[in-house]
Amino acid sequence: MTDSILIKKGTLVLPGRKELVDADLLIREGKIVRIGRGIEDPQAYSLNASGLLVGPGLINLHVHFREPGEEKKEDLFTGARAAARGGFTTVVCMPNTCPPLDNPLFARYIVSRSAEIGLVNILPAGAITVGLKGETMTNFGLLKEEGVVALSDDGKSVGKSRLLYLAFRYANYFDLPFILHEEDENLSPAGEMHEGVTSFEMGYRGIPPAGENSRIARDLVLALYTGARVHLTHLSTDLGVDLIRWFQARIPVSADVTPHHLLLTDQQVKQFGTLAKVNPPLREEKDIQALKLGIREGVINILASDHAPHSLEDKEVDFASAPFGISNLEITLPLLVKSLVEEGVIDWISLWEKLSLNPARFLKLTDRGSLEEGKVADITIVDPDTEWEVEVNQFESKGKNCPFQGWPLRGWPVYTILGGKVVMQEGSLIS
Ligand code: DOR
């Protein structure tokens, strides 16, 4: 079997150069070795990419793979399959497992399992606090030694400001960044959905934007004083974008948005019920417009999934008892194409930049995130034109909790290449 692949006649997406270029690309021994027109290599496996977009492998800063502890919802194997099918070559998995990833040995386990599965690079985020309880810091140095790439108490935010302030200072010594879930639960005790007209009509407990925004403000003030590297994940509010814009003039903070926060509003909870129960909650049209403006301006420089698989039996309960989360890893790219490219908010190059180069820079993955000679051959190939309907029952993910069933979408990944090996071809995984 040859270890060379020649991708012929594709349109290369080069986010670093902000260019689309019609050219061939040759991979050998896991690396990109040549980019140019009319490359020939009779020994290489030839892949016809005519009419397709060929770009750096997609990198996703926010997924939940549920292992250890909740393997009935997802495990590292099914999560990896879903990632490869979704065109992702690197994902960061959140530490809110059972038990939480607050211990270096769990990180070692995830890194080894990721290599064993070999479909996607699964990079662990470690907990900021032991047991995600918000009381005591974890050992950042040991977590980093075992492969933790970022710190997060995702699902919650750290309530004690002094603790987070010290964590920000401590993490600087290990060059570890934070991926922060912003929510002041004191403002939304037992909250279920966005606080607004719809929550009032439905009689559900509200989660006010004030809870998210006050935490964003606090955490960015703490970052300003400590120099911590901070990324705010699954942003959902209009004021959040303004706050980040203000701080970005002073410190290098980054932020991401999920596809569901760009496509659905709180009103759709009426239609989709618990499938649309997510945290942060779906907000209002004015928030969507502000998020899109933030994306267009580059204030929001990263896009991520917050892939949160749950079993249907967990979701098929009354609204208050259902867990938060949407399973979306296999359709993240086409959903983003619908909400951003087809709506004219950004073009393909900018979309790809927010899904590869920018997350690679945040994680300091210098050999990934762009198509250049000498870089690791992590590559995603996308069909920008053909429309397919979302078929949730065909998800590789165990999580079928997805409100987008039946949506017609374009921009599907058709090949995922990891370290020079084709791991997904036309929606099927290559074992
Ligand atoms: O909707 C969500 N689901 N938001 C979170 O922050 C956590 C996640 C989960 O773990 O299911």
Describe the structure in your own words.
The chain is α/β, with parallel strands linked by helices and 431 residues long. The chain has 2 domains: 97 residues, Urease, subunit C, domain 1 (Roll), CATH 2.30.40; 307 residues, Metal-dependent hydrolases (TIM Barrel, Alpha-Beta Barrel). 29% of the residues lie in helices and 22% in strands. The chain contains 14 helices and 21 strands. Strands 1, 2, 3, 4, 5, 16, 19, 20 and 21 form a 9-stranded mixed beta sheet that branches. A 4-stranded parallel beta sheet has the order 6-7-8-9, with helices on both faces. Strands 10-13-14-15 form a 4-stranded parallel beta sheet. Strand 13, helix 7 and strand 14 form a beta-alpha-beta unit. Helix 4 crosses helix 6, helix 6 packs parallel to helix 7 and helix 7 packs parallel to helix 10. The structure holds (4S)-2,6-dioxohexahydropyrimidine-4-carboxylic acid. (4S)-2,6-dioxohexahydropyrimidine-4-carboxylic acid binds next to loops.
Itemize the secondary structure elements and their pairings:
Layout: E1 4-14, E2 19-28, E3 31-36, E4 45-48, E5 53-56, E6 58-63, H1 76-85, E7 88-93, H2 104-117, E8 121-126, H3 140-145, E9 150-151, H4 161-172, E10 178-180, E11 193-194, H5 197-202, E12 206-207, H6 209-226, E13 230-232, H7 238-248, E14 254-257, H8 260-263, H9 269-272, H10 285-297, E15 302-303, H11 312-315, H12 332-341, H13 348-355, H14 357-363, E16 379-383, E17 388-389, E18 408-409, E19 412-418, E20 421-425, E21 428-429
Parallel strand pairs: 1-4, 1-5, 6-7, 7-8, 8-9, 10-13, 11-12, 13-14, 14-15
Antiparallel strand pairs: 1-2, 2-3, 5-16, 16-19, 17-18, 19-20, 20-21
Helix pairs in contact: 4-6, 6-7, 7-10
